[in-house]
């Protein structure tokens, strides 16, 4: 069975075609600048020398998906001979609210429920739904499944997801912590258990998804019991351009001082803050690390603050779960930040965390990187959200 996985953004689209018999990626690619001048598709296939590039106007997601399917079935660069070889499509959906605690077949009722959650993720859900509608128009008879970023966190107890706000705001508007990156946290926690030769239900794991967007999750017995992101992906860690946890009183204070409206302060916190705002250099941690190595004090401070925030969440979640068996690093910085992992794990021997410098000297590979005598195992696991989406799509479309 071949599953096409789609991840639609407002002006971009990532995709993979996966053969579920052996979970091999047959081809993958990225479409950028949908609806904007300079639309481009970059397509890759195993054995293909370089990338297949399509530069052509794509006015909307239906256009983009049409080009994706053409590339997937292209005799020279594609992975199937005809469209009917695509057995199902899995869509990443960012926000499922409280309505979805697991993936779901995309019926009209489910699509309507996703639309109802759009005010909780105005930048993401509408784009995800554009991809769904475009794909349904082109492949009307192919089963489609929605896999929600928020679903894994629906096991959180009320004490973890409720805010100290009037209860009416929760009842009327759904104001609570939802959490994100759930597909990634689920994948790496399950993979960690496999690598440790144990069952997920027998482990307490802290998963650290550290990228431009970043979150940490406490996984107790295979279930999410707390996570750092909240109503939106803004809460929690310092990120590439997001501020993370701040004193809420900063918002009206800055609005008055800078003459900002709600949209202006939202832009400030989501797109102009994080390590980018702290340094004025970049939202890319590689650039920040290069600047720090050259002695830039703002870059040094930003990296220190980032590591300290991650360390604080690890300590909090270990206390919340009454212990921790394993810590997992994943996503762009988590998978490649050798120095960042070392800094985060430093001076945590009181918790039984001891990194092995030689084992930690690796990027993007499944590996246990803690010392042999470390009571808490530390693992590096590249995330694979697309595979998790494909697995759920296979399971649900075969019902």
TrEMBL record:
Q: Which Gene3D superfamilies match?
A: 3.30.420.40
Residues reported to bind substrate: 92
Catalytic activity as recorded in UniProt: acetate + ATP = acetyl phosphate + ADP
Give the site residues for Transition state stabilizer: 181, 242
Primary location recorded for the protein, binned into one broad class = cytoplasm
The organism sits in which domain of life?
Answer: Bacteria
Keyword Nucleotide-binding (UniProt) = yes
Family to which this protein belongs = Belongs to the acetokinase family.
NCBIfam families, alphabetized: ackA
Name of the molecule in the record: Acetate kinase
């Amino acid at each position: 069975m071949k599953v096409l996985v789609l991840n639609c953004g407002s002006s971009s689209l990532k995709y993979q075609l996966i053969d579920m018999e052996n979970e091999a990626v047959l081809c993958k690619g990225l479409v950028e600048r949908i609806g904007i001048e300079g639309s481009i598709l970059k397509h890759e296939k195993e054995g293909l020398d370089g990338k297949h590039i399509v530069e052509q106007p794509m006015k909307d997601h239906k256009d983009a998906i049409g080009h994706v399917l053409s590339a997937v079935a292209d005799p020279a660069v594609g992975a199937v001979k005809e469209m009917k070889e695509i057995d199902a499509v899995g869509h990443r959906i960012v926000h499922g609210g409280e309505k979805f605690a697991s993936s779901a077949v995309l019926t009209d009722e489910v699509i309507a429920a996703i639309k109802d959650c759009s005010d909780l993720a105005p930048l993401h859900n509408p784009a995800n739904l554009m991809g769904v509608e475009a794909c349904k128009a082109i492949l009307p008879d192919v089963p489609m499944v929605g896999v929600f970023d928020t679903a894994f966190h629906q096991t959180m107890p009320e004490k973890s997801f409720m805010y100290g706000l009037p209860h009416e705001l929760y009842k009327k508007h759904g104001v609570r912590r939802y959490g994100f990156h759930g597909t990634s946290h689920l994948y790496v926690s399950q993979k960690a258990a496999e690598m440790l030769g144990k069952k997920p239900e027998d482990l307490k794991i802290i998963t650290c998804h550290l990228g431009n967007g970043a979150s940490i999750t406490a996984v107790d017995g295979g279930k999410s019991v707390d996570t750092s992101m909240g109503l939106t992906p803004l809460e929690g860690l310092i990120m590439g351009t997001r501020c993370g946890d701040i004193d809420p009183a900063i918002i009206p204070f800055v609005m008055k001082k800078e003459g900002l409206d709600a949209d202006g302060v939202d832009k400030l916190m989501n797109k102009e803050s994080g390590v980018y705002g702290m340094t004025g250099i970049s939202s890319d941690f590689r650039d920040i690390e290069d600047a720090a190595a050259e002695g830039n004090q703002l870059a040094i401070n930003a990296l220190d603050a980032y590591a300290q925030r991650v360390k604080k969440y690890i300590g909090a979640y270990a206390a919340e779960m009454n212990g921790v068996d394993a810590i997992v690093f994943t996503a762009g910085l988590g998978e490649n930040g050798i120095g960042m992992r070392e800094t985060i794990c430093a001076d945590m021997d009181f918790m039984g965390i001891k990194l092995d410098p030689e084992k930690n000297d690796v990027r993007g590979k499944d590996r246990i990187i803690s010392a042999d005598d470390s009571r808490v195992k530390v693992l590096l696991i590249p995330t694979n959200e697309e595979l998790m989406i494909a697995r759920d799509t296979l399971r649900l479309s075969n019902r």
